[in-house]
Amino acid sequence: MASAPALDVARGLAGCADSADIHREVVAMLAGDIDTRITAVQQALINGDLPACAGLAHKNKGACLAVGAIALAELFTTIDKACRRGDGAEAKTTTLQLPDAAIAFRTAAAGLNAG
Of 35, 47, 71, 107, which has the maximum CB count within 10 A? Predict the structure, then answer.
């Protein structure tokens, strides 16, 4: 299976009424706060609050899908499902992948803004 793209511009544009300006703006907003979002998910998991972790992961999945941050969306989906099953170990393992996915997303976002 091919790895998911850090940023699928076509999908993101579709979610932004095909407006490149809007897409760049929402991508920049997500790139600016993705670390805070990841920290909140990690903290809920550290606190053992799987329902809160699932809720945050679900919310972040939606935000990522809306802009085309597919790799991050897939990780948040896995965390959401794991927490809903009560599998904190899988959720924790998956959260370890979030920082690298965030770096890849920010790199792709910077390229979008440079273009």
Answer: 71
pLDDT band at 15 (very low <50, low <70, confident <90, very high): confident
Amino acid at 24: R
Instruction: Let me know: does 5 contact 70? Beta carbons within 8 Å.
Output: yes
pLDDT at 1: 40
pTM of the model: 0.94
Supply the angle between the helices 50-67 and 70-85 in degrees, to the nearest 10: 160
Exposure class string for 44-83: b at 16+ Cβ within 10 A, else e: bbeeeebebbbbbbbebbebbbbbbbbbbbbbbbbbbbbb
Compute the chain's Rg from CA coordinates: 14
pLDDT over 90 (residue 2): no
104 CB-near residues (< 8 Å, 6+ apart)? 6, 71
What structural domains and CATH numbers belong to the chain? 9-114 (1.20.120)
Tens of pLDDT, residues 51-68: 999 999 999 999 999 999
